[in-house]
Design goal:
By secondary structure, the chain is α+β, with helices and mostly antiparallel strands. The chain contains six helices and twelve strands. It is elongated and about 100 Å long. Bound molecules: copper (II) ion.
Length: 349
């Protein structure tokens, strides 16, 4: 044979194994009932065909037990499949807290991945086997879709909104990565590979700066800190809340009370909005004096920030913590620091 006939792609994530069980179970049930119905139709058609001398008197018009069983048994099966599939679906929406973060930007027509320690990749994604990985994804232009058949995972990547996807790779190897949303003339060429490595190999790969980059690039937090300084964000966002702007220290993951009385969670999407559209969630006690840092094609990103730079800044803001634990009663208030806490490692949260 010139080609290997394959029924399904590789099975290379824990979800893939679970989804395959679900898929093969529904397929088996479908085949079983299809054959059952076909065989019965054929048997009865032959047995009672015209001209056959067979007793046709007293044919039953209904049978309560038969009708109940062919209603209730499929109902239980259908609900069982529904519960099973729902359980898997909910699982795929809940990344574990200790998942490794990777940030993905889709653009016409390439995938760009960035690891927390600053290693970047184009059309490649290196991940360790046996460890949950969470992708936070956004598009620089149109809708794309991040699709790894061997993981049985697919997630749309949208302009203007972060989407997430997580998986635990289960088998080292090289797997196809596709864009599964028609995104322009070279859509079919938008793809690459996901490389699943042993944990030790991966750590070494990551520490050595990836495949083709100089060693020791800036981490995402360092890059974010640099942008924060270059754009002079600190003049309004310092260690304390001031008239011009609120402090950003320790706000990540906290509830923020807005001017209109609503409360929102300061997560990645909130911080991105605050950079691109500062008036959207105006904080209580503040006026909308901040300019938008939305990058426009015509200014060649000189004034604004690209999606990748926003991810760096968000990672930096995430790292801003109070440098001492909350003060004990009677002592002076905790000192805030605008340098990232040394203990905060981008790969652990
Ligand atoms: Cu695409």
């Amino acid at each position: 044979m010139f080609f290997r006939l394959r029924f399904a792609p590789d099975t290379a994530s824990t979800f893939a194994e679970q989804y395959d069980w679900l898929f093969y179970t529904t397929t088996a049930l479908t085949i079983f009932f299809t054959i059952l119905v076909c065989v019965l139709v054929l048997v009865f058609a032959i047995k009672y065909r015209r001209g056959q001398k067979i007793n046709r008197a007293n044919a039953p018009s209904h049978n309560l037990y038969l009708e109940l069983s062919w209603s209730i048994i499929p109902l239980i099966m259908g609900l069982g499949i529904f519960a099973w599939a729902s359980y898997l679906f909910v699982q795929t929406r809940q990344p574990p807290k200790d998942a490794m973060d990777v940030y993905v930007v889709g653009k016409q027509w390439m995938w760009h991945a960035q690891h927390s320690n600053g290693v970047r990749e184009q059309n490649m994604l290196h991940v360790p086997a046996g460890r949950p990985v969470r992708l936070t994804m956004i598009s620089q232009d149109v809708i794309h879709s991040f699709f790894v058949p061997a993981f049985r995972m697919k997630q749309d990547v949208l302009p203007g909104r972060y989407t997430q996807m997580w998986f635990t790779p289960s088998k080292p190897g090289v797997y196809n990565l596709f864009c599964a949303e028609y995104c322009g003339t070279q859509h079919s060429e938008m793809g690459g590979f996901v490389v699943v490595m042993d944990q030790a190999d991966f750590q070494q790969w990551l520490a050595n700066g990836g495949d083709d980059l100089p060693a020791a690039p800036l981490t995402m937090v360092q890059r974010g800190a640099k942008i924060f300084k270059d754009k002079a964000c600190f003049t309004c966002h310092g260690e304390q809340d001031i008239l011009q702007g609120p402090s950003l220290v320790g706000i990540y993951g906290q509830k923020r009370v807005l001017k209109n009385g609503e409360t929102v969670l300061a997560d990645d999407a909130y911080l991105r909005d605050a950079i691109y559209d500062p008036g959207k969630h105006l904080l209580k006690g503040y006026e909308n004096t901040m300019p938008s840092y939305k990058s426009k094609a015509e200014d060649n990103n000189l004034g604004g920030l690209t999606e990748e730079q926003v991810l760096d800044v968000v990672e930096y803001i995430r790292s801003l913590r109070l440098s001492t634990p909350p003060a004990t009663p009677g002592s002076s208030p905790a000192v805030a620091s605008l340098t990232p806490a040394a203990t905060v490692s981008g790969t652990t949260n």
